[in-house]
Amino acid sequence: MTEPAPDAGVRCMLMRGGTSKGAYLLADDLPSDPAERDGLLLRVMGTPDPRQIDGIGGAHPLTSKVAVVSRSADAGAPGGADVDYLFLQLGVDEPAVSDRQNCGNLLAGVGPFAVERGLVAPGDPETRVRVRMLNSGSVATATFRTPGGRPEYAGDTAISGVPGTAAPILLDFEGTAGSATGGALLPTGRVRDVIDGVEVTCVDNGMPVVVAAASDFGVTGEEPPAELEDRLRDRIQSLRLRAGELMGLGDVAAASVPKTTLVAPPRAGGTIGTRTFIPLRAHTSIGVLGAVTVATAVLLDGAVGHDLAELPAPGEPMGIEHPTGRLDVDIRLDPRRDGAGDGGVPRVRRAAIVRTARKLFDGTAFPRPPGDPHGS
Ligand code: NQM
After folding, report:
1. What is the pLDDT of residue 336?
2. Which of 33, 82, 192, 234 has a CA positioned 20 to 30 A from the CA of residue 142?
3. Closest Cα partner for 239 from 302, 196, 269?
4. Distance, CA 290 to ligand 1 centroid (Å)?
């Protein structure tokens, strides 16, 4: 579309997706030029400003997110997708927009949003939507309730980090290995590396993550996120800058990836304890694909975290403990191995997770005017 008049506003739905919150927009309602689009979105969110007081952002990376959705060109074709989903991570106090990562939490809202906007025909009582995650090219199938052809948000599924309950949304991922790192589950080619004297596993099964033991940072891994953020910021930054190079991501100083997850033995009956940095703010829970990736890592012989984990019985989900509870991930690895590395890397056969999402507001978002000295 052509750039709207500055005060015209843009059609926008605010949704909670999993444990995140973001603005969902149709690609057709946005400028087609990426720089114009990003400038508009920054002004809608109220970035840059630590409080995002003049926009709809929630003053944290987990609430400064955008989903741009459109009908897929190959909708209806065998192996095609129904809708394309571009995830954009917007900075809070920095005027940054990054498309270098997926977001499995916002993904939870994409299916219902696509039905709300008429991009896909709903089923009754449920709808399956194949979503192409444009950030990585991989596809996820979302299955959710649509009784009478309308998305149902109320339900009795609880997810840690969100008060109350809502309707379940099953997310089934395909082809997540090496999402941002050229297709390799272990992008450095090794199951362990040493960075700044600390043993790490650099892994990408949907999200590039550096996995390290909390004990190697002098913490238990049970500390509140804000405390870890203050104590470890400089060490985490140094670690991820070097890891970014080793993972083939180049200079990641201004990028939102790789994330870092400190792992510790589980304390609440789960598989592994985690504290995650995105990339420097501490996550209040853990990202969806972040959790899928960490779960995959701890299944690998020799990976950091493998010896700390209490692995579930075959067929049972893995419980990834985090600061506000636990996220269950169903991961199946194929015992056939391919690629180089320490003994070869198993293939990922299945990764699935249950989330919830909720429509919060639908209407018109009014951006700050362009040319604002604080905006872009
Ligand atoms: O890992 C946070 C989130 C995320 C991303 C982040 C996510 C994922 O919790 O799939 O969902 O890692 O920046 O929304």
Report:
1. 66
2. 33
3. 196
4. 6
- H runs (alpha helix) in 83-147: 104-116
Angle between helices 104-116 and 288-299 (to 10 degrees): 140
Instruction: Walk along the chain (376 residues) in steps of 10 and give the mean pLDDT of each run.
Output: 66 98 98 97 98 98 98 93 98 95 97 98 98 96 98 98 98 94 93 98 97 98 96 98 97 95 98 97 96 96 97 94 97 70 71 97 95 56
User: Which ligand 1 atom is at minimum distance from the Cα of 17?
Assistant: 14
**Ligand 1 nearest atom to the CA of residue 89, by list position:** 13
Q: What is the pTM of this model?
A: 0.93
Atom of ligand 1 nearest to the CA of 293: 1
CB 200 within 8 A of CB 253: no
Cβ(126)–Cβ(159) below 8 Å: no
Q: Which residues does ligand 1 sit against, CB inside 6 Å?
A: 19-20, 61-62, 102-105, 207, 259, 278, 287-290
Domains of the chain listed by start with CATH number: 10-168+357-365 (3.10.310.10), 193-350 (3.10.310.10)
